[in-house]
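pasting for ref. prot 1 ->
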Amino acid sequence: MDSLLPPRPLPSTARPPLLLSGDHHHTRLAFPSSSCPAVRLLTLRRRAVARPTTADPAAAAADLMVALAEAGDMAGAQSIWAQLLLSSAAPSLAAAAPRLLPAYARLGHPDEVLLAARELSARLPSSAARDIYSLSVSSLGAAGELALMESAVREMASRFPGGIDSATGNAFVQHYAAFGTLPQMEAAVGRLRRSGTLISVAAIRAVASAYISQRKYYRLGEFVSGAGLLRRRDAGNLLWNLYLLSFAANFKMKSLQRGFLEMLAAGFRPDLTTFNVRAAAFSKMCMFWDLHLAADHMRRDGVAPDLVTHGCFVDAYLERRLARNIPFAFRRLGTGAGDEPAVATDGIVFEAFGKGGFHASSEAVMEAACAGGKRRRWTYYSLLDVYLRKQHRKNQIFWNY
């Protein structure tokens, strides 16, 4: 097997064993300041040693090893690791691995993650060793170490008969979506599909966010269609909402309407995010007739509008200088005088469209009131009054200068 990293050298046998015997006597030392790194490491050692006499010494040593790694003392952590590995304390190391390996990757020592996975998996049963490799893939991917993550995946596929499990494969795709290029991400998705593994909802979201950040909406639509648009029911409306978003963000209004009708024909019921994807596109294009039809459809289906929906109407009406007609639009939405504002739209819509003027202003007003200790009961109408006053002042300042 090709190895990116050489094996870690074993500790010197002349070094006395650490924390594996019960008799330890610490001399109280006087350091100049409690913020000194040496003081912190000594405190960590004392906390690990100050356990009941019935505690497992190997577990105490594993706790100290993790504490030293998180404090940045890599030499001390590696020394304890090697001693525990040689003393047949692999179960204690396996229990500490979920904290140790992410700490190695987070603190800039990703090579230690793969070395630790190799050393520990050689002393564990097959199922436990697979878990260690899966953990190493997640730790390396979260740190953006894609080359080492790829090496860990190859080793995992070659060592275990079942190959890559579903969780590891989907984590692999998510990390390429977060840190890789689009071709790398698409290659990872292709490998996952060829393995017969079903792509998870979290991986779908990660891939969609990567396409949206690069404004590759056509490729987003292709990806969603290939992910089981007509077949999958376990993802809810996520795939269909992303499919509609791929048209709405490019303002392909005929394709957006056709996609919505296909969704209804496939037996899916539109949710709030579905309506707000369409409403955002209609608002940007000032398509009032379609906005009103969407509001009627929401009322018939019993879908309550949120702050995003109201913001689409407010922004469209203000764009055409029809502020006096906004209360009519609110009544068309079925908004009552006492309805409190809330946001229930999937956040991936904001990645494509951003937040509208009314939406962003209303959130800022409510957050400022909460930060100032004012307990006011906000409604859509009160937020509208504040927003219209702000727009009026902004226009007056503009014309005065």
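and prot 2 ->
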Amino acid sequence: MKPGKITITSYFGAALCVFLLSFVMGWSSKWTNNLYYGLMVLPGLVFLVKERGAGLFKLPLALAWLAFLLWFLVPATIAGHAQFFKHIFYVLMFVMVVGALTNPQFFRSSAFVRAQFWVLTLYVFSSAIYAWVTGEYAVGIRVGLLPGRLENVIYASIWLFCALGLALPMWVKERRLIEGGLAVFLAVFAVVFVMQTRTALVGGAFLLGAWLLYALYKKPRLVGSAMAVGLVILGLLFWMVHNELWFLSLWNRGDSYRIEIFHIMIGEWRNCGWALGCGIGFHTEQLLDGTMPIQHPHNIFVAMGLYGGAVALLLFVGLMVASLWQAWRLRDAWGVYLACALVMLNFDGSLLIGNPDELWPLVLLPAAMILSGVLKAQRATQA
């Protein structure tokens, strides 16, 4: 590899780390957006033009990304939202820059994988401790908002569990079992006690199921015994906390209108037409309980269909399936991250195309990392 290429990948790797850190250390979306435009979009465009796409467009997966994003020109044009063209370009640039101009090895290294989890953990617990000490929230009451750009506790909990899913194979491989066990405990405690988000528990169940299936395949007797012991421990823990106020509040919120929102949004999509959906910028006028407006569909797949139509949804599903297949083929742990995110975003996702927001680290980041792994594998076969 040329020395200049190393410099390029080092720069964009550092720029991506700064961009991700801005979600937990930045104070506004404008600050995060400006970092992205200045550090990644403008330099990335220059180098991608210079490198003639850096080999990306020889990959079917990259072409699938291009087809998916270009489709959104159709609903944007129909809705007359010329501003949305810019959002399509921003998403395309993120996928291409991360996919072609960063070092895949670094973002699969123990240093990055572990640091991502511990930075997020530190962010959640330091925010909670500050809120408890200042009296903003009482201990045991759900910490409803976090400081910084990330702010939303649901997306923070999803990101935390995705980072856990990425790091677990690393801890097992390097035999850092104490660190891994502590990480699992803190992640569960953060989700159940601090942020009290049930969406992340779905992701936790997904990760647990995946690991149990893998472990049962490898060592069925040992894992079967461990599962029996684990169930007993879980039963004891439930008996100890089932009457605690914080535990009751976790379940007393019902489904937070998710089922009703799902039916309303599917109905709106049907009324607008299945093929093209309701278009970019659509907002339903229906209210929950007759008083509460609905901000977004709370489901990333429904959002795709509602705003971009069945074509957008089919392209997105195909793209995600192809990405997960490539991750499986290359044994890339970023596939676990992406799968975990998609499972949880069935309950709290919105439109992926837009300015940088919380969905970027959850979906665009792992999908672009998988793309970078595919590109690296192709370059290795051609070398």
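The longest strand covers residues 287-288.
Confidence is low (pLDDT under 50) at residues 1-5.
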